[in-house]
Amino acid sequence: MNADPRVMEYESSTLSADQSDLLAEAIQLGLEERDYGFWAVQICDDAQGNEGSFVGFVGLSVPIWDAAFTPCMEIGWRLSRPHWGFGYATEAATQILEYAFKVLRLSEVLSSTPLSNSRSLAVMQRLGMTREEREDFNHPNLDSSDSLCRHALFRMSDQLWANRYKEVQN
């Protein structure tokens, strides 16, 4: 997944197998140290009893770069290409937001992506996250001439989530 140029199109580069293994180890260690992080997403066992397949990861992180809205908690995802377009990112991110607000008791979760990343923008919209274009920003780790520099910023407050959850229940 991390070596696929299409999956990593909006990241700084693809990852080698060794780099991907190190990332997985870091994610696992993070989950052992904190009550949040990135969790593996897999398709549940099917009716024929086949074991679930790995889809990608979805979770929460604290950005380590400075911006007007940091420090904050950010939700993010990465799915392997064969699993795009089936709603897995939205379904998993919905569960992560539920965890963020009900278990971690966060007041807000943010998400950002390059303006050109239409797939992630669509997930943020399907989640009901809100965007004020005036909050879009240049990512501080990217050169201003980089096509990925300009990012959209989306927000989900605990109150917005609670109201959205009530609508879904009714």
Please describe the structure with a list of short key phrases separated by commas or semicolons.
170 residues; alpha+beta; Aminopeptidase; 4-stranded antiparallel beta sheet; 3-stranded antiparallel beta sheet; 4 helices; 7 strands; 22% strand
Structure in words:
The chain has 170 residues and is an alpha+beta fold. It has one domain: Aminopeptidase (3-Layer(aba) Sandwich). The protein contains four helices and seven strands. Strands 4, 5, 6 and 7 form a four-stranded antiparallel beta sheet that branches. Strands 1-2-3 form a three-stranded antiparallel beta sheet. The mean pLDDT is 91.
Number of strands: 7
What does the largest sheet look like? 4 strands, antiparallel
**What helical percentage do the residues reach?**
25-40%
Average predicted confidence as pLDDT:
91
Structural class category: alpha+beta
| β-sheet strand percentage | 15-25%
Summarize this, please?
The chain has helices at residues 17-33, 88-102, 118-126, 158-169; strands at 38-42, 54-61, 74-79, 108-114, 130-131, 137-138, 150-157.
Question: Layout of SSEs?
Answer:
Blueprint (H helix, E strand, L loop, with lengths): L16 H17 L4 E5 L11 E8 L12 E6 L8 H15 L5 E7 L3 H9 L3 E2 L5 E2 L11 E8 H12 L1
Antiparallel strand pairs: 1-2, 2-3, 4-7, 5-7, 6-7
